[in-house]
Amino acid sequence: MSWFNPADVGYAARAKLADLGHGARLFVRLVALLGASLRRFGLVRDQIHFLGNYSLAIIAVSGLFVGFVLGLQGYYTLQRYGTSEALGLLVALSLVRELGPVVTALLFAGRAGTALTAEIGLMKAGEQLSAMEMMAVDPVQRILAPRFWAGVVVMPLLAAVFSAVGILGGWAVGVVMIGIDTGAFWGQMQGGVDVWRDVGNGVVKSFVFGVTVTFIALLQGFQAQPTPEGVSRATTRTVVVASLAVLGLDFTLTALMFSI
């Protein structure tokens, strides 16, 4: 008997297409529910606090140590060419263009994304979503949409905090520890960082990553099997799929931004 069965391949392909179609419909619904979410902004506000405030510590600490490393590595690299005064510019561009949005998105996927997936998955396993449907309450509008838009709002703010704390970490290493002139550090940064091209690119990236990571987390939780094993697998898939999506989108967005 042959190990290759065309029927199995067709069934798997059809199942994947069905999942893609379900995900696309859910995304369109979440975008269309922006007005309804704003009318009940208290739900979005609570989720902003849940996703943002509880992720702030890991974002700030990670940004500080990334700034430390950039300060050390950047100084010893620039020192070879006699341009160590440009350390502030190097740290700022590295953070606001690339490391700030990307590392924040990866940390956000590991901290907030898994929490969203587990929460939605447990609500599904406990038949709370089914109970809401029986009471004529739309679970997508009541549960998923506020969390989606809260993630979209929170992600750029966390990326800004990461970059700001990272720059302070680079300043602490370069100016306080190594002894670079503080005027040169901030002056090179102020003269070399363009608000629209550099900072704006980072904001666009963080917004796209926020949409992507939050949607993947909600979709995995909403499609999870209503069992403890199903919820655990969905949580794992959230981290894997969201991380790969962030890295792939980062390359795509960077290529598009440098070509414009």
Structure write-up:
The structure is a single chain. The protein is an all-alpha fold and 260 residues long. It has one domain (26-259). Helix content is 87%, strand content 0%. It contains 10 helices and no strands. The chain has helices at 6-32, 34-39, 41-53, 56-78, 87-125, 128-134, 139-178, 182-192, 195-222, 228-259. Helix 5 (87-125) packs parallel to helix 9 and helix 9 (195-222) packs antiparallel against helix 10. The N and C termini lie far apart (56 Å).
Tally of strands: 0
Distance between the termini: 56 Å
What percentage of amino acids are in beta strands? under 5%
Question: Any idea what the radius of gyration is?
Answer: 22 Å
Mean pLDDT: 89
- The total number of structural domains is 1
User: What share of residues is helical?
Assistant: over 70%
How many DSSP helices?
10
Series of secondary-structure elements, N-terminal to C-terminal: HHHHHHHHHH
Shape: elongated
* Unreliable sequence segments: none
- State the secondary-structure class: mainly alpha
Characterize the main sheet: none
